[in-house]
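Input (structure):
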């Protein structure tokens, strides 16, 4: 029997969180899921650190007297698994019968991590990706992920995966995700109006998502936040700080495996949702020319060691490795392998 390929509508959100407010940010997330689903979206992607917001203060001042109070506020508003925040997003994914990828600051044990949470149409939390190496001053905030949290999910709408921000600039990450035969990719970013040099310029980062789409032959959902005046008023006390953090900075679009923008483009200083209808059969023609993890590879010359084992600081005797909890299974009192 011939293989058939899914066709479905995808949505990439461009919006600002309710800054450092977990409850309000979750409510806004659920509202945006419902809005995208009402337009026929089956996969809905959110920007980097959407709940409860990106820690812009790390680029504005010292990490001690200036930054520490904001860190404490972020810590108290971080997402835990399980939690009421996870339950609400789970229920909304189930209500709308959608796949949802939302990036959060996750509190696990005593540390924070930058994490993409993935929900399926049944409302299950099916897995998560933690940013492998936080960028620059982000290391004041978030710990590191490992290869056990670089999943690609085999679903009825395709093989789904995601990375965040500068992870798209690391060739090893593209090779690792390609080895998992990813087909639809969530490329989550913060915003591009933080004036600290080339790090937050839109151009190079947009090119990263475009390159990812063509190099991995994936449909790529580039999704970003915008910076609001409320964030600036809350974080900036000097003219120098106000010159660094500026309103707007969105860059949200959906890119085909051929590198074409196939969605509407949300204006840089507005909230909105980019939509595109994906036909995964297009990937077949792209793989005809290039499959860097298959026929276009040269393992006798170049290869990658992709370690997918969990890296834990302390392993307790008799305790299983590499486990997370799905919300549905939490209700049933059981665990699922991750």
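Output (sequence):
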């Amino acid at each position: 029997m011939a293989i058939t390929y899914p066709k479905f509508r995808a949505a990439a959100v461009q919006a600002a969180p309710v800054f450092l407010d977990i409850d309000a940010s979750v409510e806004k997330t659920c509202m945006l899921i419902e809005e995208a689903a009402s337009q026929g979206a089956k996969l809905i992607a959110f920007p980097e650190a959407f709940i409860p917001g990106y820690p812009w203060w790390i680029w504005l001042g010292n990490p001690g007297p200036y930054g520490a109070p904001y860190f404490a506020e972020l810590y108290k508003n971080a997402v835990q698994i399980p939690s009421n925040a996870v339950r609400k997003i789970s229920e909304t994914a189930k209500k709308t019968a959608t796949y949802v990828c939302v990036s959060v600051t996750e509190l696990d044990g005593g540390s924070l991590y930058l994490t993409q949470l993935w929900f399926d149409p049944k409302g299950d939390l099916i897995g998560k990706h933690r940013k492998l190496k936080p960028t620059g001053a982000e290391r004041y905030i978030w710990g590191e992920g490992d290869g056990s949290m670089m999943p690609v999910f085999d679903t009825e709408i395709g093989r789904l995966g995601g990375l965040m921000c500068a992870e798209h600039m690391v060739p090893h990450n593209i090779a690792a995700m390609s080895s998992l035969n990813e087909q639809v990719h969530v490329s989550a970013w913060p915003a591009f109006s933080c004036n600290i040099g080339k790090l937050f310029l839109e151009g190079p980062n947009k090119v990263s998502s475009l390159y990812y789409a063509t190099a991995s032959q994936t449909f790529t959902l580039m999704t970003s936040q915008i910076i609001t005046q409320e964030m600036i008023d809350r974080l900036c006390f000097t003219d120098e700080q106000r010159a660094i953090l500026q309103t707007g900075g969105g860059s949200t679009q959906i890119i085909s495996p051929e590198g074409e923008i196939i969605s509407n483009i949300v204006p840089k200083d507005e909230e909105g949702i980019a939509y595109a209808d994906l036909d995964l059969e297009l990937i077949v023609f792209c793989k005809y020319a290039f499959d860097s993890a298959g026929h276009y590879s040269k393992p006798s010359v170049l290869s990658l060691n992709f370690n997918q084992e969990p890296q834990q600081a302390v392993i307790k005797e008799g305790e299983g490795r590499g486990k997370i909890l799905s919300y549905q299974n939490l209700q049933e009192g059981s665990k699922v392998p991750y």
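Notes: The chain is about 25% helix and 20% strand. The chain has one domain: 7-337.
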